[in-house]
Amino acid sequence: MHFAHQLLNSGFGVGLTAFSNPPTVTLPRLKGITTGSTPNFIDAVLNIAEDDTSSSLGDQDSWIKQMYLNDWKINMFGDDTWLKLFPNYFSKHEGTASFYVSDFTIVDNNVTRHLDYELSEDGQANWDCLILHYLGLDHIGHKGGPNSQNMPGKQYEMDNIIQRIHKEFVMKDPNTLFVVLGDHGMNDIGNHGGSSTAETSAALMLMSQKFENHNLNDNSLAPIEWNEDFTYYSRVDQIDLVPTLATMIGLPIPINNLGTFITKFLEVFPNDVIRKNVLFKNALQLKVLLDKKFNREPEPLLANMSIPELLQFLAETKEILLKTSSDYDYKFINLGLGLYTLITLISYVTFGLYFKGHFCVAFFDVVFFFVYAVNFIASSMVEEEHHLWWFFTTIFMAFVILKKLRSENIKWYSIVLMMIGLRVLKAWNNSGQKHNLKSNMKLSTYLSQLPPNIGPNVYIISLFLTLLPLLFMINAYTKDGVYLKIMQILIAMLSFLIGSLKMLSYLTETYNINNTILELPCWCIKFIFTTKKILELEDFNKINNMLYNLSQKVWLAAFVLQLLQPRLMKLFTKSSVSSKSYFINILAIISFILISQTNYLNVPIFVSLYLILFGFIENAQNSSINSNIFNLFTILLQNLTFFQFGSTNSLSSVDLTNSFNDKLSNDLFYKGDVKKYKFIEIGYECE
């Protein structure tokens, strides 16, 4: 962002690193940025509840409300979370759905296209505050992380937006304040919501002609070298923006604000009298909250304080209020713990009565439950819960294998395959919160970092190994000829559509197609251009959308046909279907929809799951107490795979990319004719 660097180095822009209180997701952070208060963790849930209205700030004080009460005209374009928080406050607005994280372009173009009018002379006359909330950088982070190939181009685009607003508006009006900020940061894998330094360190830059003659950046020249502690410009709390912004534009500080005026901006004011008045207003607002908190009568202690004394009072009061804002009612917490203890004792008694004839099995089950409960005593153990599931899973598998070794019919190949599948599953992704970083290399990381002439070949082989066993299951266990042919056609179509979908995701997320297309293998180039030509689309997001919708329809047809198989065969062939073949076909068909919903880098994990399932069934199907064995297997693998697919107990690892694969609403796209794709012969000249 070269232009932003120029503004910082010239003193026109003032850079800050703003600490954003967790949970570091958009809705609670917007609450903090506008009201100056700290968020509740329920806001993290409300952040993705698009129909929720309880999170509205319509009745709470904020600088948005203060602008509205003082007859400011506010125009807002971008993330529709603003409309949910501040209904009826904007003179003009257009919200953009924020959760279609696979789109990097349309969400931002829908904001930028308003600038032509809003920055014109006619447009400027119709607003006093302009809010532009861009989403592309956040979406790229979710899909590919901070080092995504799409990140530099998007930052360059944002830099041009800053340059345009600065040139066309800020330079023409010395009383303009231009603020550029992120509501949160992101971790090394592109997610946010937690409390890591990368997630809580958000950029903040204020620009005005009034800053130019003041050395507010402490001679720090941009770009500053990256450091893992994010110690760049002065560090402030993000909520400090609220009293700073309100004071600079001449509005009252919101009554529930907990932030303090950013000290370095005192230099902008011409004398100590005005500077003292700025701090006095902030201190008075915080003192009112402090007095209410401790139910004491207001005392005029501030009027005679000096500037250093006011600064100290602000810092101490802020610290007290931030601590008290997170107080909890321990009476109800203890009541809840008591009820949990009672229910636990009842459960253990019931369990013991049920398993009184199988003491050994019951004993090991109780040990498992007890150790799992103890794991939640310390937060560090919760962060590394995956170790517990890996430990218990390996012990359980060893028990199954040793039990099988006592029989005469030992299938060594199934044991070896199960062990290989389990080890590959463990090695595929980083797990836990302490070491869930891309720098800790795992198989998925290697796959994403292969060069363009090798990576696609490796990935297509992994796709083939993932989808082929499902087709084999259908063929091996379906005996009826007509039904088999129909199902083979549907499964072949499904394999092709989902395989194409995941291959395109791998290519577009791993490589910058525009710059590296000639470095890809020949078949990849043909695949890309042929797909564009057949679908008559150029945008990869729209291509993925269309492929996904087609795969949904084919999958639904296959699923319904499989559900109706017993009735159809009884009706037309007078024969019955074995329960084994019926449920294996159901498993195969459901696996397709799971694969379509899985991140492209995690798709090869299904090969490991096939091996584990096959090996387990071969070694446990004749075991005694089958229900207990299979129940434990299900519990262990559910939890182990949760972590080995890349998830953690931190909010920051919640992956929203798979929640919005359905067809995008037409009104998200620009109206107009679809361009006919002009096929480029390079796709067939790469031999």
Give short descriptive properties of this protein:
about 675 residues, mainly alpha, four-stranded mixed β-sheet, three-stranded parallel β-sheet, globular
Give an overview of the whole structure.
It is globular and about 95 Å long. 32% of the residues are buried. The protein is mainly alpha-helical and 687 residues long. 55% of the residues lie in helices and 5% in strands. β2 (74-79), α5 (81-85) and β3 form a beta-alpha-beta unit. The two termini are 39 Å apart. Residues 662-684 have low confidence and may be disordered. It is built from 29 helices and seven strands. Among the domains are: 2-44 and 53-268, Alkaline Phosphatase, subunit A (3-Layer(aba) Sandwich), CATH 3.40.720.10; 272-327, no CATH class; 453-604, no CATH class.
